[in-house]
Structures are given as structure tokens and as C-alpha cells.
Amino acid sequence: MIINPSHVSLGRLFEQNYLFEVPKYQRYYAWDDEQVKDYIKDIKNVRDSIIRGRPAEHFFGGIVCVTKTVEGSTRQQKELIDGQQRITTTMLLIYNIVEAYKKLHSSGVLEEVDRETIKARIKKLTEKYLEYQDEINRRPQVVPKLVLSAADENFYSGLINGQTVTAERDSHKRILKASALLGEFIRSELEGCLSDSQRMDVLADI
């Protein structure tokens, strides 16, 4: 087995169009409220440092992957051996940012230039973090950038695709609560904004 360790930013990791798949033997989503709140605190600290002009690095944590080939495709598929809790929580954060942008876009009071900017941001976030436009055996196909274990996948994918989902196990409840906490964080950041342009700036900073 060849091991190639590297240090890379989260944004750069997803720019490389890696697609992560949690293998069947990995545990389910397990982060509780406190772990999600710690994650949010880290996000806020890094964001605030950047705003103050003193960019700070934050160690996101180790991610261990094994390369997996997909017949008929050249995409970079990775089995996610370690790091699924952090990756999943990040995907839920991106989902909630996209939802906040969609709500702002549908407000009906934006200038056209701002509406186009929001559409572009939604597209960029979706293509960078949530979906990949693949081609398998010359057929176009949209594939998710994260596939959870069988017990959680349908619930998770339904949630981030805006479907009505029902929590049937503890891991589903934790995913739902994590998403709710992340949504509350974003809404709290937007509360003090006096204009839609300010809201756009706040979402971009997150």
C-alpha cells in the first residue's frame, strides 16, 4: 500500500473534484450537539480572523482515503476511511449556506445584478462541494460529492436535496440536529444585517 500524506485547505480539497464515499464498515454519523457547536466556533474564529486582516489557519483534522476506480469514469473517487464526521458536517454547512442564498434570491426585492450574483454563488458552491458533473461511458451523470453509508445515505441525500425526510435512527436525528444548528448559526449571523447586500457579504464571509 502506498501512503501519500499531504496538507491541503478544505477549499482546495474540493476544488480537486474528489468524490467521497463512506464504506459500509464505517460507523454512522455520530457528532452530538457539542461537537457541532465546537465546529461552528472554529468556523467563526477563522472567519473573524480573516475579517480583521489576520488570517488564521485552523487544523480541520486528518482525512484518510483510499482511491477507488469507477468503471467508465475518470473521476477521483475516494473511500473515506477517517474524517467522515467533519466532511459530512461541512457538507451540511454548505447546504445551509445555499439555502440561505436561495431564500435571499426569492425575496423579490433584490436588484437584478444581485440576483445574478446569488445565482452564480449557488452554482459555484453546489458544483464545488455538493455535486459533480460526471460522464460515464459517454453519458452525462450528476453524482454527489459525498455518499454516506447505506444506513444514512438516503436520509442525508434527501435532506440536502430539499426532500421531506423522516428520522428513523439515531444517526438520522444527529444529522438533522447538526443541520438545524448550522442553520441557526447562519440565521444568527444574518440577523444584524440592515440590507440584502450586507446579507450577501455575510454569507460570502462564512
Q: Which term fits the overall shape?
A: globular
What integer is the average pLDDT? 88
What gyration radius follows from the Cα positions, in whole Å?
Answer: 18 Å
Q: By helix and strand content, what is the structural category?
A: alpha/beta
Per DSSP, what share of the residues sits in E-state strands of 2 or more residues?
Answer: 5-15%
Output the helix-strand order.
Answer: HEHEEHHEEEHHH
Stretches where pLDDT is under 50 for at least 5 consecutive residues are: none
Q: Considering DSSP H and I runs of 4 or more, what fraction of the residues is helical? A: 40-55%
Give the termini distance in whole angstroms.
38 Å
Biggest sheet overview: 4 strands, mixed
Let me know the number of strands.
Answer: 6
The largest beta-sheet arranges its strands as 2-3-1-6
| Tally of contiguous helical segments | 7
Question: What topology emerges from the helices and strands here?
Answer:
Blueprint: H1 10-15, E1 18-21, H2 33-51, E2 64-68, E3 76-82, H3 84-105, H4 112-130, E4 131-136, E5 139-144, E6 146-147, H5 150-160, H6 170-190, H7 196-205
Parallel strand pairs: 1-3, 1-6
Antiparallel strand pairs: 2-3, 4-5
Helix pairs in contact: 2-6, 3-4, 3-6, 3-7, 5-6
